[in-house]
TrEMBL record:
Protein name as it appears in the record: RND family transporter
Origin organism lineage: Archaea, Methanobacteriati, Methanobacteriota, Stenosarchaea group, Halobacteria
Acidic residues bias (residue ranges): 367-384
Ranges of Basic and acidic residues composition bias in the record: 397-407
Organism: Haloplanus aerogenes
Ranges for region Disordered: 364-407
Length: 792
C-alpha cells in the first residue's frame, strides 16, 4: 500500500511540475484517438452473437449468399411495371459483389426476347399475380460492411427504375436490415452519449455547488470516452447493439473518478500551495480510486472470460475495460493539470491568500464532502493525510473531535451516521433480514422471463424490420425460417449419399417444428423423373443438365448444402427444440461413413449462444466476485478487509432479482453480466466506508459503534451524491430506442441505488461482526489487531 501511495505522490509531483506538458500529452493522445475512431465498424443481428466456427466459415464461403428481396405490389403485369423491373434488374446486375438478379422481367424477356406492350402477353407468362419478387443475390462469403453498399445501390436503382405510380415497392433482406440497424446503432450511440453528458452537467451543477470549475470533470470524462473510441478502433473492436451501451456507463463511472480527484485536491488546497496540494491529494485519494477502477475492470473481465465464444459480449467487456482505464487516465492528465494551472493563476492574482479567499468565502454546505472519498489512509503511515487539516484545526479550537458534531456534514450526513449506528448495534437482525431478502431474490431469479431473441433487442418500429415482417407475412415466412446443413465428405455425389439425404428428409419432416427439407437429392430427383440414379456417372449426367447457378446452391467448393425449413414465428424455446430435432434427425438417419453433416448458419448458432450466456450468469457473477476478492486481498493483505466490502455486494446480487421481478424486467444477455459489474462498481462505495471505519477506530477512545457512526456520517453523504451522479449517467440508457438497452438502463439505475443502500445499511453491521470475530481470533492467538496489520 505504501508503494502505491508513493507512486501516486510521484505522479502528483510530475503533474504539478509540468502541467502544460501533461496537457500536451493529453492532446496528442486525443488526436491519435480520432484516427482510431475512424476505423470503427458495426456488426449487427445474429452475426454479433456468433463466434469463430470453422464449419460456419466453410458454409459462409461456399453457400451463404446474402440477398436483397424486392417486393412489388400492384399492377404487376402492366408493361410499365415489368419494364421498371427490367431496368432495376439490369442496373443491379452490374453492381460489385452481386452474383445475379432474378425477376419476372427475366421470364417475360426469355419468352418474347423483349418486354411486349400487351398486358395479355405478359399475363400468359406470369399469370395474374398481384405481387412479384425481385431477388438480388450476392456473392458468397461477404461481410456485413461489404453487403451494405449493395443495399445503398438498390435504393438508388429503385428510384432510377421509375416504377409506375400506385405500385408499391419494398426493399428488404439481410443487407437492408443490417444497413439500417448499423445506422441506428451509430445514431443511438451518439444520442446516448449526448444525453449522458447533459445529465452529468445537470448533476455536477446542482450537486457540487461551491466547488471551483465544477463542470471540469465532465470535460475530463468526455476526453476519456474519446480515448475509448480510438482504442476500440485500433483494437478492431466493432460497434454493436451491446457495445453502444458502454459509453453512458463510462460517463457514470468516469465522472466518479474525476470528482474524487477534484474534491480531494480542493480539500488539500485549503491548507497547502498547489505544488504540495496535488502530491498530497493523489497520495491520499489515488490508491483507493485506483483499486476501485481495477475492481470495475475485473468485473467486466469476468464477463469477457465467461463469454469468450460470443463476440458481442466480448466486445462489450473489452470496450468497458478500455473505458474505465482511459477515463481514469483522463482524470489524471486532463483534470488535474487544468486545476493546477487554475490554482496557480488565482494565487498569482491574489497573492498568498488564506483558506476563505481560496474557497471564495468558504464552501457551500451543499458541496460534496471531500473527506467522503477518503484515501484508504487507514494505515499507520507518517504521511497519513486522511483528516483534512482544516478540520483538525477546527477541532483544536473548539475542543471537539467527534465528526458527527460538525456542521460541515449537514443533516443528511448526521442522519446517515445515526442510522448506521443503530443498524450496526443490531447486526443479527439486519444481516438476517438481508440474507432472507437475498434468498428470496435468488428464488425469484429462477422465475424471471428471458430476452434471448435478437429481434427483441431492436426497435420494433425500425423501417427495415417492419418491411421484413411485411415480407414474411406475404411470403409465408421467407428466408427467416430456413436453416442450413453443410455436408462435408469426399464423395458427396455418390448415389448412396443422395439416398441418405432422402432418408434424412423423411426422418426430419417427422420431427416437430420441421416443415420441409431441400437437398441435393431433391435437385437430382427433380431433374431425373423423381428417381435417384443407380450409378455415380448417372448422377453426374443429371447434375450436368442443371443450370450452374442452380447447381451452386447445392454443391460448391467440395461441400453439399441442405436447407431445412422450420415452422414460422418460433419462440426462442421452440428454436432450441427445432435445433435439437435437426441434430437428432441427422444422428437417427445414420449418415454413410466419411459423410459429416452439421447444422450451421448464424440463425442456428446464435440462439444457443445467447441462451447459454443467460444461463451462465451465476458463473459470470462468481468470477467477478472471485476477481475482486483477489484484488482486495492483494491490496490489503488482510482477510477481513478483503471480505467485508464484498458482503453487501452479495446481498445486492440477490436483491436485484426482486427489483427485476417488481418492474417486469426480463433477463437479457446484457443484464446477465450485471452481477459481475455490480460487484466491481459497488466495491468503491463499500471500500470508502470501510476505510473510514478503520481510520476512525484507530483514534484513542473510539469504539466500534462510534467508528461506524463517524464513517457513515463523514462519507455517507459523499458516496450518496457520488452514486446519484453515477445514476444520472446510467439513466441515459433508459431512453435508448433499443429495448435491450432501455431495460438494462432501468436495471443499472436500480442496482446502483441498491448498492448504496447495501453500503450504508449492511456494511456497518458486517464490519462489526467481522471485526469482532477477528479480535477474538487475534486474542486467542495472543496478538493484537495492530500486529495483524501487514507492514506497508
Amino acid at each position: 500500500m505504501g508503494a502505491l501511495r508513493n507512486l501516486f505522490r510521484a505522479v502528483g509531483h510530475e503533474i504539478q511540475a509540468h502541467p502544460v506538458a501533461t496537457l500536451t500529452v493529453a492532446l496528442i493522445l486525443l488526436f491519435a484517438a480520432f484516427g482510431g475512431a475512424a476505423q470503427i465498424t458495426s456488426v449487427t443481428g445474429d452475426q454479433a452473437f456468433t463466434g469463430s466456427n470453422p464449419t460456419l466459415e466453410k458454409f459462409n464461403e461456399a453457400f451463404d449468399r446474402g440477398s436483397i428481396a424486392v417486393l412489388v405490389r400492384g399492377e404487376v403485369t402492366d408493361p410499365a411495371t415489368i419494364r421498371a423491373m427490367a431496368r432495376f434488374d439490369d442496373r443491379m446486375s452490374e453492381v460489385e459483389n452481386v452474383a445475379y438478379v432474378s425477376s419476372p422481367a427475366d421470364q417475360v424477356r426469355a419468352e418474347y426476347g423483349r418486354i411486349p406492350d400487351s398486358e395479355a402477353k405478359i399475363e400468359r407468362v406470369l399469370g395474374q399475380p398481384n405481387m412479384a419478387f425481385v431477388n438480388v443475390v450476392f456473392e458468397p462469403g461477404l461481410t456485413q460492411p461489404e453487403e451494405r453498399p449493395i443495399y445503398t445501390e438498390a435504393l438508388k436503382a429503385e428510384e432510377w427504375a421509375r416504377f409506375p405510380a400506385g405500385v408499391g415497392v419494398i426493399i428488404t433482406g439481410s443487407a437492408a436490415f443490417s444497413a439500417q440497424l448499423s445506422e441506428l446503432i451509430s445514431q443511438s450511440t451518439n444520442q446516448l452519449l449526448g444525453l449522458a453528458v447533459g445529465l452529468m452537467i445537470v448533476a455536477l451543477f446542482f450537486l457540487f455547488r461551491g466547488v471551483r470549475l465544477r463542470l471540469l470533470p465532465i470535460v475530463a470524462v468526455f476526453v476519456g470516452v474519446l480515448y475509448t473510441f480510438g482504442a476500440i478502433g485500433y483494437a478492431g473492436i466493432p460497434n454493436s447493439t451491446l457495445t453502444s451501451s458502454v459509453f453512458p456507463i463510462l460517463i457514470g463511472l468516469g465522472i466518479d473518478y474525476s470528482v474524487q480527484f477534484h474534491e480531494r485536491y480542493e480539500e488539500e488546497l485549503e491548507s497547502a500551495p498547489p505544488r504540495q496540494a496535488l502530491p498530497q491529494a493523489l497520495a491520499g485519494i489515488g490508491p483507493p480510486v485506483f483499486v476501485a477502477m481495477l475492481a470495475a475492470a475485473l468485473g467486466f473481465g469476468a464477463t469477457w472470460i465467461s463469454t469468450r465464444g460470443t463476440p458481442a459480449f466480448v466486445w462489450f467487456a473489452q470496450t468497458s475495460i478500455f473505458g474505465v482505464l482511459l477515463t481514469f487516465l483522463a482524470g489524471l492528465i486532463v483534470l488535474l493539470p487544468v486545476l493546477t494551472l487554475y490554482a496557480r493563476i488565482r494565487r498569482r492574482g491574489f497573492g498568498e491568500i488564506g483558506l476563505r479567499e481560496l474557497t471564495d468565502g468558504g464552501r457551500d454546505e451543499g458541496a460534496v464532502d471531500a473527506e467522503s472519498v477518503d484515501d484508504g489512509a487507514a494505515d499507520t503511515e507518517a504521511d497519513n493525510d486522511a483528516t483534512a487539516p482544516s478540520e483538525v484545526a477546527a477541532a483544536e479550537r473548539t475542543g471537539e473531535t467527534d465528526a458527527t458534531d460538525s456542521d460541515r456534514v449537514g443533516l443528511l450526513g448526521r442522519t446517515l451516521g445515526r442510522t448506521s449506528r443503530t443498524l450496526a448495534a443490531n447486526p443479527g437482525v439486519v444481516l438476517l433480514l438481508a440474507l432472507v431478502l437475498m434468498g428470496a431474490g435468488f428464488q425469484a431469479g429462477q422465475q424471471l422471463d428471458t430476452m434471448a431473441d435478437t429481434e427483441e433487442f431492436i426497435p420494433q418500429d425500425l423501417p427495415a424490420y417492419v418491411d421484413l415482417q411485411q415480407f414474411r407475412s406475404v411470403t409465408g415466412g421467407g428466408t427467416a425460417v430456413q436453416y442450413d446443413v453443410i455436408v462435408l465428405g469426399s464423395d458427396l455425389r455418390h448415389p448412396a449419399v443422395l439416398r441418405w439425404m432422402v432418408e434424412f428428409e423423411q426422418v426430419a419432416v417427422g420431427m416437430p417444428l420441421v416443415q420441409g427439407v431441400d437437398s441435393p437429392a431433391t435437385l437430382v430427383k427433380a431433374h431425373n423423373g423423381g428417381e435417384i440414379p443407380q450409378t455415380e456417372a448417372g448422377v453426374e449426367r443429371v447434375l450436368n443438365r442443371v443450370p450452374p447457378r442452380e447447381r451452386a446452391q447445392y454443391y460448391n467448393d467440395g461441400y453439399a448444402h441442405i436447407t431445412v425449413v422450420a415452422a414460422q414465428d418460433m419462440t426462442t424455446g421452440e428454436t432450441l427444440s427445432f435445433i435439437s430435432n435437426v441434430h437428432e434427425a441427422i444422428e437417427f438417419s445414420n449418415p454413410p461413413p466419411g459423410v459429416q453433416p452439421e447444422l450451421t448458419g448464424t440463425a442456428a448458432i446464435s440462439p444457443p449462444s445467447i441462451v447459454d450466456q443467460i444461463e451462465r450468469r451465476n458463473v459470470t457473477t462468481g468470477l467477478g466476485v472471485l476477481f475482486v476478492f483477489g484484488l482486495l486481498l492483494a491490496y490489503y493483505r488482510r482477510l477481513v478487509k478483503a471480505i467485508a466490502p464484498l458482503v453487501p455486494m452479495l446481498f445486492v446480487i440477490g436483491w436485484q432479482n426482486l427489483y427485476m421481478a417488481a418492474l417486469g424486467i426480463s433477463v437479457s444477455p446484457l443484464g446477465a453480466s450485471l452481477g459481475a459489474m455490480s460487484v466491481g462498481i459497488g466495491a468503491e462505495y463499500t471500500i470508502i466506508v470501510m476505510e473510514r471505519y478503520y481510520e476512525e477506530k484507530k483514534r484513542a477512545g473510539v469504539g466500534k459503534l462510534d467508528a461506524v457512526e463517524t464513517a457513515a456520517t463523514r462519507v455517507g453523504k459523499a458516496i450518496t451524491v457520488s452514486g446519484m451522479t453515477t445514476v444520472f449517467g446510467f439513466s441515459a440508457l433508459t431512453l435508448s430506442p433499443f429495448p435491450i438497452l432501455a431495460d438494462f438502463g432501468y436495471l443499472t439505475v436500480g442496482v446502483i441505488f441498491l448498492t448504496l443502500v447495501a453500503a450504508l445499511a449492511t456494511l456497518p453491521p458486517t464490519l462489526i461482526v467481522l471485526d469482532t470475530a477477528e479480535d477474538r481470533v487475534n486474542a486467542a492467538l495472543g496478538r493484537s489487531t495492530a500486529d495483524a496489520e501487514p507492514t506497508p
